[in-house]
Design a protein that fits this description.
The chain has about 350 residues and is α/β, with parallel strands linked by helices. The chain has two domains: about 200 residues, Quinone Oxidoreductase, Chain A, domain 1 (Alpha-Beta Complex); about 130 residues, NAD(P)-binding Rossmann-like Domain (Rossmann fold), CATH 3.40.50. Helix content is about 30%, strand content about 25%. It contains twelve helices and 16 strands. The strands form three sheets. Strands 3, 5, 6, 7, 8, 15 and 16 form a seven-stranded mixed beta sheet that branches. Strands 11-10-9-12-13-14 form a six-stranded parallel beta sheet, sandwiched between helices. A three-stranded antiparallel beta sheet has the order 2-1-4, covered by helices on one side. Helix 9 links the parallel strand 12 and strand 13. The longest helix has 13 residues. The mean pLDDT is about 95. The structure holds zinc ion. Zinc ion binds next to helix 2.
């Protein structure tokens, strides 16, 4: 089968790899309808998060179940399924509390930029649709697998409520879908921080009411101007750098909420600043599995169209161009067709 391996900085290759097999009785094998490149894939691609050996890539997926292990009860061959980047049994106390991405049996998925994928803990990890959806829904269903689920968690963890004011730091695909999520949750004012015209346009389509192009002190001053001088109720940090995290905390009003869903690289918080900021902090790897049934319904009922974040579609064997285009910010997010 065709799969994707990262060999080192900017050395990503599409290769013929052995087909995955059921290795545990709780596994399923799915034939992917589509997969994609994640912003977080760019950290190892750029060599910022170095890899120790050639590594199979990809953790966003949806497709048709080919085969299941003998202990899989609910997921059946022929079903269309979506799963999260983190596997979960969906039964332990952490899962039942809604934090499936920290399940006691969690594994992080990889190897999804391929034509076939083994999914551990299939019953807990995968969500099946009642029918096989038509082709036009595939990009949006794929988006629920990570990028929308993460944007949704960002809005939820930042306590976005009807009538509230939300700021979204980061105009990558997750930030843009954080805008969409904040809109769905009823935010009245949504301020997207973005310097890129095409991304500003999509942010507005998804529900942003204001765009702030400034950063650092000027950016914070602009947010304060727009929020009666006090900062926003909810701020969604969707990048993971020191600058974006401080931008988020300093743009939040005392008593407000900051969520952080970008994988942090070099972020350190200083105690006294945090103490006097008086904000709630809540983030981490998004428990996408918690939201999947609701998000799949919203897509299939045509309430949301998160698949618009895919502004580049390539055949799977051109995966290298997908990484390159995202690295150079020529594309927001690349969808790959096996
Ligand atoms: Zn669990």
């Amino acid at each position: 089968m065709q799969g994707t391996m990262l060999y080192g900085p900017r050395d990503i290759r599409s290769e013929a790899l052995p087909e995955p097999k059921i290795t545990r009785p709780t596994d399923a094998i799915i034939r992917l309808s589509a997969t994609c490149v994640c912003g977080s894939d760019l950290w190892p691609y750029r060599g910022i998060a170095p890899i120790e050996q050639p590594t199979p890539m990809g953790h966003e997926y949806c497709g048709i179940v080919e085969e299941v292990g003998k202990d899989v009860k609910n997921i059946k061959p022929g079903q269309f399924v979506v799963g999260s980047f983190a596997t979960s049994d969906n039964t332990c106390i952490i899962c039942r509390d809604g934090y499936q991405s920290s399940c006691v049996h969690r594994e992080f998925m990889s190897a999804a930029q391929a034509s076939l994928l083994r999914v551990p803990l299939a019953d807990g990890t995968l969500v099946a649709t009642s029918d096989v959806p038509s082709k036009e829904f595939i990009p949006s269903l794929l988006a629920t697998s990570d990028v929308l689920g993460t944007g949704w968690f960002a809005a939820d963890a930042a306590n976005v409520k009807p009538g509230s004011t939300a700021v979204v730091v980061g105009d990558g695909a997750i930030g843009l879908l954080g805008v969409l999520s904040a809109r769905q949750m009823g935010a009245e004012r949504i301020i997207a921080m973005s310097r890129h015209e095409s991304r500003q346009k999509l942010a507005r389509e998804f529900g942003a009411t204001d765009i702030v192009t400034e950063r650092r002190d000027e950016g914070i001053a602009r947010i304060k101007d727009l929020t009666n001088g006090i900062g926003a109720d909810s701020v969604l940090e969707c990048v993971g750098t020191q600058e974006s995290m401080m931008q988020a905390i300093r743009s939040t009003r005392p008593g407000g909420y900051v969520s952080y869903v970008g994988v942090p690289h070099g972020v350190e918080l200083e105690g006294a600043g945090l103490f006097f900021a008086h904000v709630h902090l809540h983030g981490g790897p998004a428990p996408v599995r918690r939201y999947l049934p609701q998000l799949i319904d919203l897509v299939l009922n045509e309430k949301i169209n998160p698949g618009k974040v895919f502004d580049l579609t390539l055949p799977l064997d051109q995966v290298a161009e997908g990484y390159k285009a995202m690295d150079e910010r020529r594309a927001i997010k690349a969808l790959l067709r096996p």
